[in-house]
Amino acid sequence: MNDQASSHISEAGDYLYYLADDDKVYRILKSGNEKASVVIDAPVWFYQVYESHIYYTDRNITTYKPTNLLRMNMDGSNKKVLGEGVSIHFAVQNNNVYYETFSKSGTFLNRMNLDGTEPKKITELSSLFDFQIVEPYVYFGYKDIWEMLIDGTGNVKKINKDVNNPLEFIVDQDWIYYMEGSSSADIYLYRMRRDGSEITAYSPNNMRGFNIAGDWIYAIVSDPTKFL
């Protein structure tokens, strides 16, 4: 569909949106009948398509630290800063934006409205590199994949002791899909149930990223000839 190296793919209507290696977000018709066009020209850490908007974190190209969480229309117009000084990762769902902030005491999970109003600190986590909200739980990654109630109550549960340093994960319905590997040339895609059972490995072994949209898994690989 395109030959650009990509790290995150989303589906919305007739379009696929993807974050390319030049740190810009592009969109292209799923049919492939149109040349990809730039939607976000600024350096981007992470983005998410939700309803009629794109949410994303930009970054300082000198320090590579995230600076702002922004929202804009699907065509790139009407940009608005929702929060400043946030971390890379965030999640938009159920009419809320969940996002990370840091302080000397730890890492905090926060929530605000879609327009950036009413920001609220939910709970403190010792550390995390990624998280996903599946109410009433938050799943987060730090050396393993963990589950806890979103309000911070109850015990923190490790999903499976055999999962080791997952590079990326997605919770989709009853399954958790995740990438794991010891080197850039030996990274596999796995899936397991949300209770940690039924771990299955997928081809290929040269994964660079993936996303799930509808019934499809979009795989980003370093060598497409090794996909099967």
UniProtKB/TrEMBL annotation:
Q: Known Gene3D superfamilies for this protein?
A: TolB, C-terminal domain
What is the species listed in this Swiss-Prot or TrEMBL entry? Paenibacillus qinlingensis
Q: Which stretches make up the Prolow-density lipoprotein receptor-related protein 1-like beta-propeller domain?
A: 2-143, 145-221
Residues spanning the signal sequence: none
State the name under which the record lists this protein. Answer: Prolow-density lipoprotein receptor-related protein 1-like beta-propeller domain-containing protein
Pfam families linked to this entry = DUF5050
What SUPFAM superfamilies does its record include? Tricorn protease N-terminal domain
